[in-house]
Amino acid sequence: MLSRDDTDRGRARSSGADAGSLYRLEVTAAQAKLPMDVQTQPMQPSAHAHPAPIVRVGLLGCGNVGSALAEILLTRAEDVAQRTGIRLELVGIAVADPTKPRAAAIDTALINADAAALVTRDDVDVVVELIGGLHPAHELVETALRNGKPVVTGNKALLAVAGAELSEVAADAGVDLLYEAAVAGAIPVIRPLRESLAGEQILRVMGIVNGTTNFILTRMEEKGDDYDDVLREAQELGLAERDPTADVDGHDAAAKAAILAVLAFGLDVVDADVYREGIGAVSAADVAYAKQLGYSVKLLAIAELVDGGPEISVRVHPAMVPHTHPLASVRGAFNAVFVEGAVSGELMFYGRGAGGGPTATAMLGDLVDASRNLLAGAPAPAPKRASSTMRAQQDLRSAFYLSLDVADRPGVLAAVAKIFGDHNVSIRAMEQVGLAEEARLIFLTHVAREGDLLATIDELRQLQAVDRVSGVLRVIGETDDGGAS
């Protein structure tokens, strides 16, 4: 390494005794005689510069995200090589229907239907899996890993069920299994949890990780429309599938919550461990009342230590988020993940959580990392996993919103309040709204055990004056002593 003195003598002279690291260029007499256009020409790369190493990529699936990634690899290879020092060469694409029309930039000679052959080809160094689902994705990813090929995937369903098993296969083979795009599209949250915050004690990860449901709930708040009407609008805009069950019933978010829990706590969590509620029961009235009370309704994926551990809770459900909380400002189809660390405090990652281009960008980042690690012979650190102990949902504590339609006559409110008290659920605020011959009672509770709140609801439903319990939502942001939503 050159010293400061070496640098001063060889090429530059200090611009002053107190100039620190500022230097001026010394121009020789010979250089001064050159024409100005020659003096100012940019430096040309050396003919002896080392070419970027080539990493050959096999792509499984060429749908929305796969097509976007393929186009990047085929049309921007030179740009990627200049930026990363690695030339990514797409050598094969396996699809279910090779005859389907593709983007003009995608060379049809690369496309075939033999995914099993692609993952074992000698001229494939890294495999990108974008088939989705459990089968045949599981078998293909496992085969690629056992053949010493790093795998980049965005398959949240596969990771939430078989992530631990596949991580062990990858570790045994000494290669990467990377999945930045599996949780929140282009939002970089997996890598920070795995690497940047590896030494931090994560207390809670809480996020809006499904764009479809966030779009629906945002529209319901902004326009006052019913759930069914907004769902149809989302489908017409291409923001919801024809069969929206995976999104609106919380399955998609639950798979992502399991992945986040593994990374945050280093514990084995699969999607079957995740408590799940969807948004189908959320009414326009609930959303409107929440707004009046200073809250927005969001479908949240939550993974947290309970009472400081070792028990954890991983769950997905709609909740009322105070307008003062950063997650309340996440609108439309955007995603955000809010991380709370013991030392780092509160961090939030925000952006587009879906779409071909944004998700392909996240896949490309993992692909570059996997390629660098493959060339260096050193895979990224895999998350450590230990067995997990889940706190029962009924033993968690939270504040709640509760609305009841009751007969509008004397004594009803007192009878209702008594049932709350009998089950140790304290009322923080109450509002009454007239509904012709009935009244709607709207309650916000103090923090209570969820099992006690459920017992309260069961007894309220047996009260003759109660027509129905019209809405129940957890409320985040209340101080509690363990496991609040």
Describe this structure in words.
The chain is α/β, with parallel strands linked by helices. The chain folds into 4 domains: 4-35, no CATH class; 54-186 and 359-376, NAD(P)-binding Rossmann-like Domain (Rossmann fold), CATH 3.40.50.720; 197-352, 2-Layer Sandwich (Dihydrodipicolinate Reductase, domain 2); 394-475, Alpha-Beta Plaits. It contains 18 helices and 19 strands. The chain has helices spanning 4-10, 29-32, 36-39, 64-75, 77-84, 115-118, 137-146, 156-173, 181-184, 190-196, 211-223, 227-236, 245-248, 251-265, 284-292, 356-376, 412-422, 450-462, and strands spanning 12-14, 23-25, 54-60, 87-94, 111-112, 126-129, 151-153, 177-178, 202-208, 275-276, 295-305, 312-322, 334-341, 345-352, 397-407, 427-435, 438-445, 448-449, 466-475. The strands form 3 sheets. Strands 9, 10, 11, 12, 13, 14, 15, 16, 17, 18 and 19 form an 11-stranded mixed sheet that branches. A hairpin with a 2-residue loop joins strand 16 (427-435) and strand 17. The longest helix has 21 residues, at 356-376. It is elongated, with a radius of gyration of 28 Å. Residues 1-48 and 480-484 have low confidence and may be disordered.
